[in-house]
Amino acid sequence: MIDLLGYAAFFLSTALIFGLIALGLNLQWGLTGLFNVGIAGFVAIGAYTSALLTTPAVADRIGGFGLPIAVGWLGAMVLAGAAAALTGFATLRLKADYLAITTFGVAVVAQLVALNAVGLTGGPFGVAFIPRPFGALADHPVLFNFSNFAVVLAVTAVTYLALQHLTKSPWGRVLRALREDERAAVSLGKSARSYRIQAFAAGGAVMGLAGAVQAHLIGFIAPDDYVPTLTFQVWAMLMVGGSGSNRGALAGAVVVWAVWVGAGALTAALVPTEFQARAAALQIVAIGVMLCVILLARPQGFFGPTRRKAKPGGGDA
Amino acid sequence: MPTPPPVLEAQKVTKRFGGVTAVDGMSFAVAPQEILGLIGPNGAGKTTMFDLLAGAVAPSSGSIRLNGVEVAGAPPHSRLARGLGRTFQIPRPFPDLTLMDNMLLARQHQTGERFWANFTTPRRIAAEERAARDKARGLLDLVLLARLAEEPARVLSGGQRKLLELARVLMADPGIILLDEPAAGVNATLLEVIIDRIRDINARGVTFLLIEHNIDMVTRLCHRVLVMAAGAALCEGTPDEVARDPRVIEAYLGGAA
Questions:
Q1: Which residue of A has its CA nearest to B150?
Q2: Domain total in chain B
Q3: Which of A45, B18, B165, B230 could form a cystine bridge with B87, CB 3.0-4.6 A?
């Protein structure tokens, strides 16, 4: 029973970290309409930044500064945010299709750098010995899982509240206006480019933070953690939870992660050993089927904004 | 008494799109507190001229001065803060935002539109929002839309959208407003409201430049009319003078100029 609770805490920690990434995507896509298919890249930048800042020094590798975890997380946000800002700046007006292509490229580049820049990232072997908050409790797995969960919960809560505040602020109002009609927003004195870059950078910073938190939860990162599947998972989470809603981003993350883990456990239990490797693809199928069901039954997701009916009397003239 | 300097002045403004010269060396000035009408047959280049003045497109050559300052190369989003507001031929409210949010967006220099300020000076932002809301309510009241303030803008009729755009741009206290066909597609009752409000706002010192095909409205509202044809100025004068000018009749009826 205690073990089960410990597992639940670990499960929720992972799900909430996905939720953090989805919150970043919601700021970019849900609020501002910026298409990012390079999520994994920004998460990787955050994870590696924090890992390099906080791990103890290692021979044959740059980094290993042994700084406090908080510094690593801050650095992850700054660097991932800067990378996002640069991406936005480079694609000039951040029009949907160009931005999509560019972000995909950024993710591929980030993963290839992680894989090949052995002197910086450890290459395919990744970075190990990333300090874990409450690492001293590692001998008591349940307690350890719960304290980790508390940390993740606190980070998620603070991020959620900050994003809610921003969404409702005049700043968020400008983002919504830009999403709905750029020309009108510009005619009202809003610089489309500046706000897009701000939103993209802020979303990227949140993704970077999520990557860092994840890295410190597991204690080890490798390039394989940041493949396009991650991007797909996060998009599925936001779609299921409801694009445009921060609550939806978190709820979608928990639900989709549960389906993912459940499908994994089910195939592990039912599929003969020799087909296990191939059966792993069924996890993606499960998410795909779930997306289809959601899009058919509730296209706006769990918490997506429902369009209110027009009031009679305000009708067409 | 010396004539006051113009609010808005175009000098030899030309805009070419590929091989087509949409606006060809236009020069004119809008005097403070006047209502200047810009008329001409379809395809004369009126809306392109508007886009040039509003900064939405950059001129190929020529100068545009707003309150004496050259703005031809300045980005379009800087116009409203410098006192020039515009509306669109087909109104562009933000359909999923409430009328109130539509209005609040037009305020210039809002502290709360700066990212970090939302964390560092929340009280100041709240105070600014309260003041802006009061102003927005007053303006929505002026255009008879106050009761719909919390409804999304997509519920509005075509005429109401024109009124919302007018009220919205007024949130920024512009010195001059460019109106692109304020009468198009508006029913007779609302049209009277629009004419009435433009007069009202003009009486408070706001200058207007308007494109309009409704000659009745032009005659009633405008102090002066400028006629465009084939990208160039054809003539200008009082509404009566222009209406009698044979060149104008030729441009409208001669058709294939």
A1: A311
A2: 2
A3: B165
